[in-house]
Amino acid sequence: MYIPSFNKFENQQDAIAFMRRYSFATIVSVKDGLPVATHLPFLVEEKDGVVTLKSHFAKANPQANDSIDTMVLVIFTEPHAYISPKHYEKVENVPTWNYLAVHAYGKFKVLEGEENKAALLKATIQNFEAEYLKQWESLPDKYKQNMMKGITAFEIVVDDLQAKAKLSQNRSEIERENIITGLEHSDNTVESETAEYMKHLKM
Length: 203
Known about the structure:
The protein contains 7 helices and 7 strands. The chain has a 7-stranded antiparallel beta sheet. The mean pLDDT is 94. A hairpin with a 2-residue loop joins strand 1 and strand 2 (34-41). It has helices at 12-21, 62-67, 114-128, 133-138, 141-149, 173-184, 189-202, and strands at residues 24-31, 34-41, 43-47, 50-58, 71-83, 96-110, 151-166.
């Protein structure tokens, strides 16, 4: 990903926090020279500076088998906002787009066995809807086993994390204030969230 020096995330923890907040991401692999993508929810784990991503494919999705032991890319993105030239001090300006994105590269590894699948599903439920865990655990074992037969659980140990925050860092203080004011009052959630990140960046 092209990242000018002033658009880099300040540290890895900021990137991890972003991935956890916007955890519905896109996994991209290559099959016969063509990129293939699937949209999945991810668990983002970090231990001793090593970031690991975990999720699962529908077993019927061919991207699962095609990705085994290959390098893949997972793209985390959102929020974003159109930036109008009306916010700038000079007439000689053009529109642009503010956005945040994290690209995580690593080798795709299948998590084999029912035990690993069960642990992944439990962690996923705890992350996205902890209240559902009791209901899941009360379901018949045969039903849960059939569900697990229909998925391919996997993990990716990230060896390259690229994080970009394009938030008008190259504009004047007055221009940034104008943009923040315009975006934070927007009815569009992604625009108001972009303003939130811009304010945090200022601090």
